Predict the 3D structure of the following.
Amino acid sequence: MRERIKKFVAKIRRADEATKQKWFWGSSAAAVLIVLGLWLVYISNFTAAPFSKKESAGNEESSFIGTFKKGIQSLSDDLKTRYGNLKKNLDTNIGALEKRIGETNTIMIDSGAAENAPQGLENTTTTPLP
């Protein structure tokens, strides 16, 4: 059996790239399915409520699906709240921006009076450029 597996792996190694990719993706998908299957078995067996089968069959809240539905509902409520807050904040900020854009600004240009000129600088000559 071990020799057959070694020969099979060697055959895949000698194959072209397309064949190697097919085996890679196929074995990866199989591994993911196995892990998910084991996880679902674990969830259903070890997190079950301590009720009998008849009691838990009607009690959707204690099942995996019921818990999943509650989580989705909680997430959607949270997103609605956050979206509502975001919408309020955006409306407030856009209103403030529109108000700011609508304002007129006044610019005063000083005539450069002598009292504003720097004092105590030595005179320099200017050199004209060619």
